[in-house]
Amino acid sequence: MKKLLYIIILLALPFGKVFAVDYNASAFGCVSDGQTNNTRSIQAAIDMISAKGGGTLNFYVGRYLTGGLELKSNVTINLHEGAILVASPGFYDFIQKAGKRYFIYAEKQENIKIIGKGVILGQAALVAPNIQNQVNKGFVKESVDSLLPTLVGFSHCQQITLDGIMLRDASGDVLDLDHCSQVTLKNQLIKAHASPKGAGLRLAASTEVSLDSMYVDVAGKALVKDASSKISRINKSVTPNGKPIK
Predict the structure, then answer these.
(1) For residue 92, what pLDDT is reported?
(2) Contacts of 158 (CB under 8 A, 6+ apart)
(3) Which candidate, 113, 25, 112, 17, places its Cα nearest to that of 63?
(4) Which residues, in sequence order, are CB contacts of 80 under 8 Å at separation 6+?
(5) How far is CA 69 from the centre of its chain?
(6) DSSP secondary structure of 123-186
(7) 10: pLDDT strictly greater than 90
(8) β-bridge partners, 114
(9) Which residues have a Cβ under 8 Å from the Cβ of 95 and sit 6 or more positions away?
(10) Cα–Cα distance for residue pair 179/159, rounded to 1 Å
(11) Under a CB-based contact definition with an 8 Å cutoff, are residues 216 and 246 in contact?
(12) How far apart are CA 211 and CA 203, in angstroms?
């Protein structure tokens, strides 16, 4: 009787929620030694999890060096305490979209989460000199400032959650939301001083954005938004001088 009842409950629940799966990054060959480039392994894991309907990719203690990553629908990245996603400092390792560069990026995706107590680290002190080197050699014509990559960017996405993650040492802007909606940002430390104009959070045509328990310490403005962007909630979110973000 109990077995039959269990089966009935399973059938009554939404398919995606019943079969949501946890994956360990190491199972995809990811190495947490801070030296091995894990770009292909991590991207393959994200692509597979999304293709299978969704799940959580777990990173445990260690430094996971990687180039640019594209997040996909229904994938949760869980950076457990002590886990650090470290940006590869190579200029060509970042994702390039519409003339901008990103370390972590998603476009036209939904239900994306980055959670946990880990860190996304931009390595600005190594990235900027590499960009300058490309400019000096004439390989790229733009100014160094215009080439600095954004740490995390979302474009035309919805249902985005960042909870607990520390975003640190971005070369340019820290977090960029372009035409996004239903965004929840909470329990976060954002800290970056490499770029004098680097914003903590930049909003363009984004709505239903919620900020809760955010601490934003950047060289530029904590929040930059255009007139069409709408923040639905700001709670306990401050800059180092104690002033509320607004």
Answers:
(1) 92
(2) 110, 180, 181, 182
(3) 25
(4) 58, 59, 60, 61, 116, 117, 118
(5) 9
(6) -HHHHHHHHHHHHHTTS--S-HHHHPPEEEEEES-EEEEEES-EEE--SS-SEEEES-EEEEEE
(7) no
(8) 77, 162
(9) 68, 69, 70, 101, 102, 103, 105
(10) 12
(11) no
(12) 12
Rounded distance between C-alpha atoms, residue 201 and residue 199, angstroms = 5
The first and second tokens of residue 200, run together, are 């903590």
φ, ψ at 8 (rounded to 5°): -65, -40
| φ/ψ (deg, to 5) at 60 | -105, -175
| Interatomic CA distance for residues 71 and 45, integer angstroms | 10
Structure tokens at 141: 């014509």
Any idea which residue has 């650090």 for tokens? 84
Q: What is the pLDDT of residues 11-45, one digit of tens each?
A: 344 444 445 699 999 999 999 999 999 999 999 99
Cα separations in angstroms, 61 against 69, 78, 85: 20, 11, 10
Query: Which residue in the block uniquely carries the two structure tokens 């400019």?
Result: 135
pLDDT of 82-117, one tens digit each? 999 999 999 899 999 988 999 999 999 999 999 999
Query: With 0-12 CB in 10 A as exposed, 13-18 as middle and 19+ as buried, what is 205?
Result: middle
- 128 in the Ramachandran plot: left (φ > 0), alpha (ψ -120 to 50) or beta? alpha
Q: What are the structural domains of the chain?
A: 23-235 (2.160.20.10)
